[in-house]
Specification:
By secondary structure, the chain is α+β, with helices and mostly antiparallel strands. It contains 8 helices and 7 strands, in the order αβααβαβαβββααβα. Keywords: ATP-binding, Kinase, Nucleotide-binding, Transferase.
Length: 218
């Protein structure tokens, strides 16, 4: 899905369609992350949907060869051309992580340094501590959803790698960013948690843009 290059600015594809290709790709992304295989096809052939679902795509690893082979097979079997997005059955996102990534609208962003990023994206990940935060964007309240973004000092941009629900609001995080958790009570006048975002309230999604961003800056 991350390697897919399509024109998502085409608008609605027909008089009865809404959202155009962008909406369809986003829907496919949501579904495959939940482990659900998704098919995009032309609406002129609803009677062929069962054939499309039951069709077994080629296992040819080469993308160009696979396209040629698949188109030929579909014509022979009289199945309309369609695009199939395979659900991530072995590593699909857990229900709570799916909700965090797709069910909540982020109200702002927390930008973290590379060391913090590594700690909260490893398999046995840690929670987000204030010491790893280098920037706060937007205005949000406690427990609202924010984007988690990787940034590097001196670099003018950051890249999103996940979302989380905050234990502190944006003004409070601005005061405690970059400091040890032991100083939170001193700086805020109260102490709620050592974590700005607990690992159970965090969802991570890595992609090619993030990988390239890291290569450019490390």
């Amino acid at each position: 899905m991350n390697d897919l290059h399509v024109n998502t600015k085409s608008g609605a594809g027909s008089a009865v369609g809404t959202g155009g290709m962008e909406t369809k790709i986003l829907a496919a992304d949501l579904a495959t992350n939940a482990g659900i295989t998704t098919i995009i096809c032309h609406s002129n052939h609803p009677e062929q949907i069962e054939k499309m679902i039951n069709h077994e795509p080629t296992n040819e690893p080469d993308y160009e060869r696979a396209n040629i082979e698949e188109e030929s097979r579909l014509k022979e079997m009289e199945i309309p051309l369609h695009t199939r997005f395979i659900g991530h059955s072995k590593s699909h996102i857990k229900d709570r992580e799916f909700w965090l990534l797709h069910g909540l609208k982020p109200k702002g962003s927390l930008i973290v340094d590379y060391g913090c990023f590594q700690a909260i994206t490893r398999v046995n990940r840690a929670g987000l501590l204030p010491v790893g935060i280098i920037g706060v964007e937007g205005h949000f309240n406690q427990l609202e959803c924010v984007e988690l973004r990787l940034g590097f000092k001196g670099v003018g941009r950051s890249v999103c790698f996940g979302r989380g629900r905050c234990n502190y609001n944006s003004s409070e995080i601005e005061k405690i960013k970059g400091v040890q958790s032991s100083r939170v009570g001193e700086l805020l006048g109260y102490w709620d948690s050592e974590y700005v975002v607990h690992r159970d309230n965090m969802a991570v999604k890595l992609d090619n843009e993030l990988e390239e961003f890291i290569k450019e800056n490390t």
